[in-house]
Amino acid sequence: MRMRSNEKSGKGMSNGRAVNGFLLDITGVLYNSIYKSDGVAIAKSAEAVDFLYKHSNVKFLSNAKGNSNRNVARRLQRLGINVREEDVITPAPVVAQYCREHKLRPHLFVREDVLQYFDGIDTSSPNCVVMGEVEEGFSFERINRAFRVLIDMPKPLLITMGNGKFFQRVDGPCIDVGAFAAALKFSTNCEVLNIGKPSRFYFEQGINALGMKPEEIVMVGDDLMSDVGGAQACGMRGIQVRTGKWRPDFEKLPVTPDLTADCLYDAVKLIADNGFRL
Amino acid sequence: MRMRSNEKSGKGMSNGRAVNGFLLDITGVLYNSIYKSDGVAIAKSAEAVDFLYKHSNVKFLSNAKGNSNRNVARRLQRLGINVREEDVITPAPVVAQYCREHKLRPHLFVREDVLQYFDGIDTSSPNCVVMGEVEEGFSFERINRAFRVLIDMPKPLLITMGNGKFFQRVDGPCIDVGAFAAALKFSTNCEVLNIGKPSRFYFEQGINALGMKPEEIVMVGDDLMSDVGGAQACGMRGIQVRTGKWRPDFEKLPVTPDLTADCLYDAVKLIADNGFRL
């Protein structure tokens, strides 16, 4: 791509509105996940990230719920994608902060690696359930424990780290935490609070981290409804990439991306070549 | 109870309509289940069953999905409750018959003990999922396999053995298969066909087994919505017992039983003493 930053781009030479910041989804945009391994980098995503660090502003807004921000960043670094830990946003620390601010005592149905964020939070006699577990740590016994906590509450509250229908692994699509939130809602009639995309509250974490107005930001994701539609609902522009969980039948869904590109690199190149306008 | 059969009861001496047959739920009515054990008989349910075999007509209509009819009957017999295998109705054989009649090729997400009912049914390139698995055989991997089968179908069909919110074990309530049907529906937008109470098709199995009109039959169950409400919707009378999963807050729910009794024995005694009328 041509190394032209937004500072250098003249207004007259390009169309569209200025793009001053990028929020990037991680899984399916930077890399594809493989069960119990680091996964594989998506072609040229490393170059795209380097370029954005150099010529624009970038944060990473993921619904990844299984690892700490440190381990998310380290995994990407092992794949050659130089994402800085401090630029990674995942639901677990946001949920923990929400629990602190709202004096919630969560029953934690989460991965071991994110338990650290809940240090110091009272988890005795829980008044909500926090769920962010799928794959190897998921079991009937664990969802049943969450069910029993909820069924005993007068006003059951389930906080879920993302509300996705499925996530994409290299071996195929996998049922995601949103399905198990629907399961618990079916059986307990709980309120479900999603702290993850596409909730506005969660997108605001990314907007605030970039420190700019939503209309200056583009969100790049592989999930049309959650990434693209969610970003648009918050006043950002939403870019669909044809990687990760993208499927041709997304075109039948009721969200129209501001841009569709084959991959992150292509999206960044197109915007940069247009003087950081879209 | 007074040993008075319906033949002996004079019309003038009692109120209500004739009761010529009983459909009994099993778990929570005859016995309470304990994880990985036979469970415990509910007081006097054995006497009530003996009495009904002697003085009326009785079949057992259960949503139990983990065991063959033979093993359901044997378990009850070990608890001293003399239920005959041929009088037990559970979803698995009914689902298998449905698959045969509709030329369905199921992906089987069921317990090992009920696989025998599907002998001879083609399960290659499945065009539906049959689900009847909770507790020890449930895993992320297995529900994910069911998810992948459904997500690949143009018109995904999930047949579920019962659609309950929870079942009751002695150690507490447990999230039931209805929740996981809701999960799969959330993620795949599948059609959900419940072959189990409260579906009319399933109640008809019990009605046909008794060989009488719905209005001659009472259904006795511990689940207000599924057993009692479901039976009433089919033209039977529905009796709620205060055993199993019964909870005081059932009174807030929008179904009114034709009779509420502390246990099966009390319900049978009251009806028998009233000349088999209710």
Automatic annotation (TrEMBL), chains A, B:
Signal peptide start and end residues:
none
Instruction: State the family named in the UniProt similarity comment for this chain.
Output: Belongs to the HAD-like hydrolase superfamily.
According to UniProt, the reaction catalysed is: diphosphate + H2O = 2 phosphate + H(+)
Keywords, sorted A to Z: Cytoplasm, Hydrolase, Magnesium, Metal-binding, Nucleus
Q: Where in the cell is it found?
A: Cytoplasm; Nucleus
Q: What is this protein called?
A: Phospholysine phosphohistidine inorganic pyrophosphate phosphatase
Q: What is its main location?
A: cytoplasm
Instruction: Give the InterPro entries listed for this entry.
Output: HAD-like_sf, HAD-SF_hydro_IIA, HAD_sf, LHPP/HDHD2
Give the EC number(s) listed in the UniProt record: 3.6.1.1
Specify whether Hydrolase is a keyword of the entry: yes
- Tell me what gene encodes this: Cni-C13C4.4
Cofactor(s), by name = Mg(2+)
Q: Which GO terms describe its molecular function?
A: inorganic diphosphate phosphatase activity; metal ion binding; phosphatase activity
One GO CC term on file? nucleus
Annotated function: Phosphatase that hydrolyzes imidodiphosphate, 3-phosphohistidine and 6-phospholysine. Has broad substrate specificity and can also hydrolyze inorganic diphosphate, but with lower efficiency.
Enzyme class at the top of the EC tree: hydrolase
